[in-house]
Design a protein that fits this description.
Layout (H helix, E strand, L loop, with lengths): L2 H14 L4 E7 L5 E7 L1 H17 L2 H19 L6 H13 L6 E7 L2 E8 L7 H4 L10 H11 L5
Antiparallel strand pairs: 1-2, 3-4
Helix pairs in contact: 1-2, 3-4
């Protein structure tokens, strides 16, 4: 589908479930508080799906830092500083974070919510056998004790 058609479809479908409605008090650039009500079903659905794919493919440090950068990026755009040198520099970082972001996300829309109920990516860093506590687990749980002691050393009194 063309992007325009995807957005139209998601707006129609998401709107039927009340997805993407927000009622908020914002801090305007000039310091005034304003109450704003938005409806963006397609944006909410696409953002949710995208964040789920990022959660699969970005390592912990990249993911955490991107969250911080995203706040500043959004602020620059909100303030109309689209062509600022800082936004241009942040564009490079954001582009790097997106290199491996691809895959499929299943979403459930219901009563104003959009929730991921499945996700997969060929670039996923998630490995079930490394993160479970079952018999098929490949992670040696005994190693955790030494790590915990080492990690906690600076905080012992």
């Amino acid at each position: 589908m063309k992007l325009k058609d995807i957005i139209n479809y998601l707006n129609e479908t998401g709107g039927q479930f009340g997805v993407g409605r927000s009622d908020m008090v914002e801090n305007r650039l000039v310091g005034i508080k304003s109450r704003e009500i938005y409806e963006a079903p397609a944006g909410t659905i696409l953002h949710t799906a995208h964040r789920e794919l990022e959660a699969l493919v970005l390592d912990r440090e990249m993911s955490h830092f991107k969250d911080m950068v995203s706040l500043k990026y959004a602020e620059l755009v909100y303030y109309g500083l689209w062509f600022s040198s800082l936004k241009g520099a942040l564009d490079g970082f954001v582009e790097k974070t997106q290199e491996m972001v691809s895959g499929t996300v299943r979403l459930k829309l219901s009563k104003g919510t959009c929730v991921a109920v499945g996700r997969k990516s060929a670039n996923s860093l998630y490995k079930k056998e490394m993160s479970t506590y079952g018999k098929e687990d490949k992670f040696d749980q005994k190693l955790a004790e030494g790590f915990i002691r080492l990690w906690g050393m600076p905080y012992k009194r």
